[in-house]
Amino acid sequence: MTTAAVELRYYGQDDLSGIRQTLLDIHADAYADDMTEFDERFPWFVDHWGGNPGFSCVIGYDGDEPIGFAYGAPAAPGREWWREHLTEPLADDSTFSVSELMVRPKWRKTGTAERLHAALLVNRPEALAVLLVDPDHPKVQALYETWGYRKIGNRQPFPDSPNFAVMLRDLR
């Protein structure tokens, strides 16, 4: 499996009903050996993010088989995940929140995650991208750092969620 063989398909809010089960299936495969109670709420997160008018999703396919996805949406002004961690005002604080990036185990370490991520952000009009990383996965955080993100703080969005690392990247 190489990233060259992966076909990328783009989706928006109007496509959610047609891709929802694909996202759930990839998630179930990706977390088959490590599902937590928090992870079991993934269908709610899909519906929450997919309900956003700016929802954007990229799904990678190897032939007809969906192998991974990345999705997110523009952050609501004033509610960006980074806001509580920066003291200096930004000239342009428009932000795209990368909510999920997931690749099925068989296709990991092939460059697919980076390709999905890049495709999700390639033409974004926002100045910034933000994402949250589980601190139990330092290799994932290190990977995001190689993609231009920097850790700026921690955030626990739900009482039963990890205290995620907040990572920010300039898109311009």
From TrEMBL:
It holds the Pfam family Acetyltransf_1. The keyword Transferase applies. The keyword Transferase applies. Residues 6-172 form the N-acetyltransferase domain. PROSITE patterns: GNAT. InterPro entries: Acyl_CoA_acyltransferase, GNAT_dom. Keywords: Transferase. One of its GO terms (molecular function) is acyltransferase activity, transferring groups other than amino-acyl groups. This is GNAT family N-acetyltransferase. It comes from Streptomyces fodineus.
